[in-house]
């Protein structure tokens, strides 16, 4: 458990928060790197696409992380 003030966060949710922050930063950098004046797609659309992919990757990571932790917990008992 990680404790920040009154809030107690488990390891799995904390790692999901960290993964989402890292993927969001990578999505913004990737969008800025991909934007070109000669392409018809605006920067806002690139940001939306990349952030959606970061959110989807975090969601899949969270589902797999919670399934694995449930399997480990059941295996211990």
Topology summary:
Elements: E1 2-4, E2 7-9, H1 11-34, H2 43-76
Antiparallel strand pairs: 1-2
Which secondary-structure class do the elements indicate?
mainly alpha
Q: Tell me the total number of β-strands.
A: 2
| Beta-strand percentage range | 5-15%
Number of domains: 1
Q: Fraction of residues in helices?
A: over 70%
Helix and strand run: EEHH
CA radius of gyration: 17 Å
Low-confidence stretches: none
| Annotation field: number of helices | 2
Shape: elongated
> Which oligomerization state do the chains in this entry correspond to?
single chain
Between the first and last Cα atoms, what is the distance in angstroms?
21 Å
| Mean of all residue-level pLDDT scores | 87
Strand order of the largest sheet: 1-2
The major β-sheet equals: 2 strands, antiparallel
How would you describe this structure to a colleague?
- The protein is mostly helical.
- The chain has one domain.
- The protein is built from two helices and two strands.
- The chain has a two-stranded antiparallel ribbon.
- A hairpin with a 2-residue loop joins strand 1 and strand 2.
- Helix 1 packs antiparallel against helix 2.
- It is elongated, with a radius of gyration of 17 Å.
- The model has no long low-confidence stretch (mean pLDDT 87).
């Amino acid at each position: 458990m990680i404790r920040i003030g009154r809030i107690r966060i488990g390891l799995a949710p904390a790692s999901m928060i960290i993964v989402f922050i890292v993927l969001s930063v990578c999505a913004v950098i990737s969008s800025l790197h991909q934007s070109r004046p000669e392409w018809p797609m605006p920067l806002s659309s690139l940001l939306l696409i990349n952030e959606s992919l970061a959110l989807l990757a975090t969601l899949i990571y969270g589902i797999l992380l919670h399934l694995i932790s449930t399997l480990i917990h059941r295996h211990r008992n």
